[in-house]
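fwd from M.: "can u put these together and see what the complex looks like"

so here's what she sent:
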Amino acid sequence: MTSFLLSLTGGLLAALAAPWLTRRFPKRSGWLLALAPLGILVSLMNLLPALRNGESPSVSLAWAESLGLSATFQLDGLGALLAALVAGIGALVLIYGGAYLSGHPNLTRFYVVVLLFMTAMLGLAVSANALLLFIFWELTSITSFLLIGFEHERPAARAAAWQALLVTGGGGLALLAGFILLGNLTGSYEIPQWIAQKEVIAASPQSTAAFLLILAGAMTKSAQFPFHFWLPNAMEAPTPVSAYLHSATMVKAGVFLLARLLPALGGLPAWQGLIPWIGLATLLTGALLSLGQADLKKLLAYTTVASLGALVMLLGINTPLSVKAAMVFLPAHALYKGALFLVAGGVDHAVHTRDIRDLGGLGRAMPLTAAAAGLAALSMAGIPPFFGFIAKEVVYESALGAPALAAWVTALTILANIILAAAAGWVALAPFWEKARKDLHPHEGGAGLWLPPLILAALGLVSGLLPELAAKNWIAPAVSSVLGKPYEVKLSLWHGLNLPLLFSLITLLAAVLLYTLRVAARSADADAWQHLARFGPAAMYARGLKGLLSFAALQTRLLQSGYLRVYVLFITLFTVGMALPPALLSMRALPPAVWTGVRFYDVILVLIIVTAAFFVVRATSRLATIALLGAIGFSIAILFLLYSAPDLAMTQFAVETLTVILFVLVIYRLPKFSRLSSRPARLRDILIAGLGGLMMTLLMLVVSYHGQDSRLASFFMENSLPKAYGRNVVNVILVDFRGFDTLGEITVLAIAAVGVFALVRGAAKRKGERHE
Amino acid sequence: MTFLLALAAGALFAAGIYMILRRSLVKILVGLLLLGYAVNLLLFNSAVLVPGRPPLIPAGQTVPPEISADPLAQALILTAIVISFGVTAFVVVLIRQAYQVVGTDDLNEMRCTDIPCEDSELKDGKEGGA
């Protein structure tokens, strides 16, 4: 396991080497970089025997031990299945991307981000700690954002990248909240711990909230209805990215998460009650929306949405059979859909259009691409002996075994599959074997463009012909780890004459019919959706975003006016609002004020302060203001003197004198007092200031009743002489115990002095210039 | 006495907040000074008020007398007094300077950083604020 984890760093090293490799071997860089994922795949294969035996090797690294956190990596069958897809398809996508983006100025960036994404995705597959998983989860969102916006000069790409990030990022926040709820509930962030404590989770009322939050994360990531709209828009990314992230791997992360947590949360009533319907809704939405698409990639994107819906539905049904079906369908879909995306990219690369209405007659010029397309489409359409056929059979079988409304689930699944099978024909047959409507001058690209899709499509055929091999090595360990117990998986092409086979036949026949009617179906479907689009979630998203932005603009206008008084106003009002009610409440609980130790000169001093404060506000003469301020300052100094603070009193006297001198020096260069505010504004300010003053008085009284005995004071008193050799404790604190504080203070004064000097000198200089 | 001091500090806070809400720069300076006084009183009042027993260690002793004023609050206030003097000095010069350059002390008139203030900038300032 450790060696496998180390091999994961290969992706990061390759990302580091990518810039150099791209410069040194501009034509072969993709092939060379593909060695990194291939190495990871080999290292994963080494662990297969252990996984087959039901072992799940793990490594735990110290992370933040004081918080009880450790970075636990664990490889089980489920993680291995995902990791194999990520690494295997990753290698092919690097090769393909090198050819597809050959000569692109930002090819290096493509390599680096794809490799980073791959590493994050592999990390996700092997995380056994929920917080670790979350970090990798977010990293895949961020790399996805960077890759969708790869051609960032185009506004559409930027908008799509932003949308994907906002939707998946929002889901990520919900996911984190759900994880934290579960973490608090079980006292651990280790997923195996959650599984072990599933009874604790099931018994808690919080678990439903946690489940819903986690589900929201999975739904946004895996483009489930009503969050499906970001995925088709993400097709702004270069095609290799669409094939890799937005079809084969990243969008499977939500499905993976559900499978990962199924042993812990699968027992909740909401699991079976909610998830199948979300999946089914997504399956239907994706299938029906795909009908009207003319763009190859968008069409594929909607079929991907549909397939993701099917996967989620299967996990939601949560029977051993449906889990098996999900684990069969997941790799089958990754293989054929990845291949079809790469084919679409190849077509785009060759003839610079992806519009189905224009494409045709490419088969003769691009035989290898056409072969890859054909193989993949046969698997997608579910025709024996392809792997897709086996997958569809088990999907039908599980739909029949659904816990509720099995007939409806099955019927709707068949309907969706008919459309998907027809869509396979539109993507893989029509562009190659229809008569060309335009002179397209097609040509086959280099090996980098046709080999990767051909390999993927061929794998779909091989695993269909040798289903036992796939079942034993990949599917069975994955199903066992989701179910939490050893589960034997038998896969075969021939199941005997049964209902699923009949459904398969119906699907095929109907699909052929739909294929022949495709032109009419497409325009009818496109029209229908055009009318509905206004009410769709994409429109809601746009409205929501607009609302959010205008709210932000409004509150910025309100709060960030640029006027000091508005800021002070809001700060004061907010503080008063927060502090005044509790202060008033706690006043009632306090004992009545004790009027002891008040001497007549105390009262006189306080009277002077209050009166001066009142008159200074009303003063219109600058000289009077200085005099009143001086009266306040000197009164406070005398108070300090009376109440045992001679140092303070001396400092205050000195500073007060200096301030008065300063004012007298500059007073006649200062503007005269003028009354600028209107009367209502003044009244409003008086009210606010009064509230602020009242709040401070109350707070001080509340504080004075609580905890005036400071432990710090006794520390300083006791240690002043023995440790710091000073008899004036206040001075010792300033220059010794808190010497650095004083150093900071001196620095502030020095900066202020420099500032004053610069301002005065600058003024003098300007004056001099003016005189010249 | 705690009560009286709280009252005085409250009055100073109220006056300070009122003055800092003004449009005139000089009044804001006065507000700043008043708030400085108020905060010092607040800090002073947060410790027990002890008349006539400063925290000094008499000759021949190792600790101050049993009952003496809290030295920590005093140390904090000492810092505050000096810092607010620094701020005051800087602000006074800054205001004087700004007034001489801009020719107004009304905050509403101070809308741009460049002198002379161009009309276009004025418009920009309004848009930025809006």
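replying to her w this: Chain B touches chain A through 92 residues (CB under 8 Å).
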